[in-house]
Amino acid sequence: MAKLNLNGVEFWSGSAAHDTVRQLAGLCEQVVHAPIPLSPDGDSFAMSCDPAKKRRGILAIQGSYKPDDDIVEIVILLVEGSAQARSGVSAVFQKLAALSDRVHCLEPEIDNDRVALRMLLSVKAAMLSLSRQETFIDELKKLDDLARLLQEEIPSDKTDQELEAAYRKVREVLEPVRPLAQAETDLEPAHVAWAREILDYLGGAAPVAIAAPSLAFADYAQALLARVTMETGGSLGRLAVPSISTQGLVELVRRAPGFVVVPVESISLGASRYELGNEVRALLATLVAGGRSPIFMGTYEELQGVFHGGQGAASDPLMPVVRHIPDVALPALAEAAVQVASRPHGGLPPARRKELTGWVLAALDGRGDSQQQRILPLVARKVAADYFAGHYPGPGATTGFADRAAALSETFAGLCVHPRAMRTAEVQTAWVRTLASPELLATFREHLLAQDRALEALSRRLAMEVLTRPLHQPLRYCAQGTPGTGKSESAQLLAQVLDVPFVVIDAASMSDAYTVTSQLLGSSRGIVNSYQPGRLEQVAKHHCGAVVEICDIDHAPPPVQSALAALCFQVLENGEAQSSAGGMFSCANIIFAFTMNLPGGMDEAVRRNGIGYNNAPTSRTVTRKIVNEIKGMLSGAFLSRIGTPILFEPLDGDALAAIMERAVAEAVRAAAEHLGRPVPAVVIGAGVGRAVLATLEASVIAFGARAILEHGRALAAEAVLRWKGEAVADRPVRVMARGTGELDILID
């Protein structure tokens, strides 16, 4: 074989195929500037670049002779990297269009999320003339340019591979922090010095707490620390779980391949607030004793909430070391935010990162610093997601998204907006049927004596309430009068007619404002039975509704009056109340009956006759005086919610006598039945009521119907016990009065 030199390429002549292989290998060496050895049989050649040299351009060339087709196939590796990486297509298409039809793109090879792009160049197995050599070299140079372009468009992931390998064993709880990708010339020397200072403290096992004013600053600081740490051969990992116990944190710091960043809000502290300081000090001491401490990161308020030490605790500036992130220009923050946002998608090449950073900066332009920092991470994530999804919204659309994000103001920290709870349809229907019926007044008159005017007013008020009161508000009325005039009995009768529960809230029995809230709304947390709802909530949730009498508010202590008035003001106006646990409940299915009399003998005073003849006060005058007294005792606002009081007048002698006779008849019938001697009927003799009243002192009569009822039942019980006769079927017993006021029972 003879040694030849064609166009600067030396090779030994032999068979045509072998000569062509040697010639092509030499031509490839001219383009890649690297030796390309031949195989021993001379049928192929291969070259691959040393990864440590980080060559730009063609990465590998493999040529082989194909005797069946009498051609030499050359496979050229242009780029390899993450399968998730993306590239701009316009420049790539321009390069591809310049290639000849002898160049074909092979199907990308994907292995373990790694992709390799190769091109196939076919050359006839015959010695190349000078013109063909120039054409071949020009084709290789175009492929070399295409490789450079793709490599510039696809981010380098050599560092990512190393980090993933280092953190593979702890990947479920700790993720590696990618180093800041900014050029060395773009880094602020003061920032680098700050990061190195942090690493010095960590080298001394001192825990460091970094106060970050916003998430954007935190992302920048972590990426900067990761870069400076990597320069010294270390790495930085970030907690990847939402919470971690103190014991788990100590173990994680010990096992981590590098330094650990822990969001302070992720630390789960199991101690009570009184033991929080001791638990945190014990955690820091354990970390220092183990020779490795983490970086705690959060806002100053979040860090202070964990590391304040507690009341009376000693402060140590080394436990932890407190450091603030230095001021960072917005372009640097934006580029770091874009880098962080692109990591889940495989990262961005420098050119694309700069382009997307420009979009983000344009969207943030003209906004305040705090607003820029607040929405920066969100805008960066949106831009990165659009880019990797194949969308190119550009600066205009990005600015529109930033405008909408900045305008958001609603959070779940405020009140829940919901429609008001209304009175249930079943309750409203039943109440309208009963309260708007004329039969209600007849029922009242049948059971309550000598209060026709008050009962008429009460019937009208209830009809007005059920027909016109908004459905989210409870019904209400106020009954005022001297003791024993039928106020409470009318409320009980109302509940009986409606067939709903009747509940009495005695204001006079409450000692202070706390008793009001604990009884009606439930006790505060930690108190015995605090898990149980208050009486008002229990009543409000009854499915049929209820009648609630709030009595003797006039005799309650001033703090109780104020607390009840405030609570009733809210309930009557808004139709709902808030339990001690914080939940709201509707009171729309309640009828509130406020019964009261005036303290200090004022009931008698407002009704007292004036001087002279025919000077008895009119009903309107009495009502006006009572309204003024209630305003002074409670408030005008409270009175406006419960309405004008319905006056129950003091009972006269005839009314009291009739009440006495009715009480005696009912008591005789009940007592005889309980003794096993039931009577078919009870007839009250003429004048029994008057005769009994004549024997009572005026002080007893002054207590009204309630005292009369008690006295009548007592006389009836004594008469039944003295009665020795036996009841006769179909023959009623007659009750007669002695001159002493005692009663006797006779058989008619």
Gist?
With 748 residues, the protein is an alpha/beta fold.
Q: Uncertain segments of ≥5 residues (pLDDT<50)?
A: 1-14
Largest sheet: 6 strands, antiparallel
Distance between the termini: 158 Å
Radius of gyration: 48 Å
Task: Throw out a few tags for this protein.
single chain, about 750 residues, Rossmann fold, 26 strands
Plain-language structure description:
This protein is α/β, with parallel strands linked by helices and 748 residues long. The strands form seven sheets. Strands 3, 4, 5, 6, 7 and 8 form a six-stranded antiparallel β-sheet that branches. A hairpin with a 5-residue loop joins β20 and β21 (584-586). The longest helix has 24 residues, at 130-153. The radius of gyration is 48 Å and the shape is elongated.
Map the helices and strands:
Blueprint: E1 3-6, E2 9-12, H1 16-32, E3 44-48, E4 60-66, E5 71-82, H2 89-97, E6 103-105, E7 109-111, E8 114-124, H3 130-153, H4 158-166, E9 174-176, H5 189-203, E10 208-211, H6 215-231, E11 236-239, E12 244-245, H7 246-255, E13 259-263, E14 267-268, H8 276-289, E15 295-298, H9 300-307, E16 321-324, H10 330-342, H11 350-364, H12 369-388, H13 394-407, H14 425-435, H15 439-447, H16 452-468, E17 475-481, H17 487-498, E18 502-506, H18 513-521, H19 535-540, E19 546-551, H20 558-574, E20 576-578, E21 584-586, E22 590-596, H21 602-607, H22 619-633, H23 636-642, E23 646-648, H24 653-674, E24 682-684, H25 688-694, H26 698-701, H27 705-722, E25 733-737, E26 743-747
Parallel strand pairs: 10-15, 10-16, 11-13, 12-14, 13-15, 17-22, 17-23, 18-19, 19-22, 24-25
Antiparallel strand pairs: 1-2, 3-4, 4-5, 5-8, 6-8, 7-8, 9-11, 20-21, 25-26
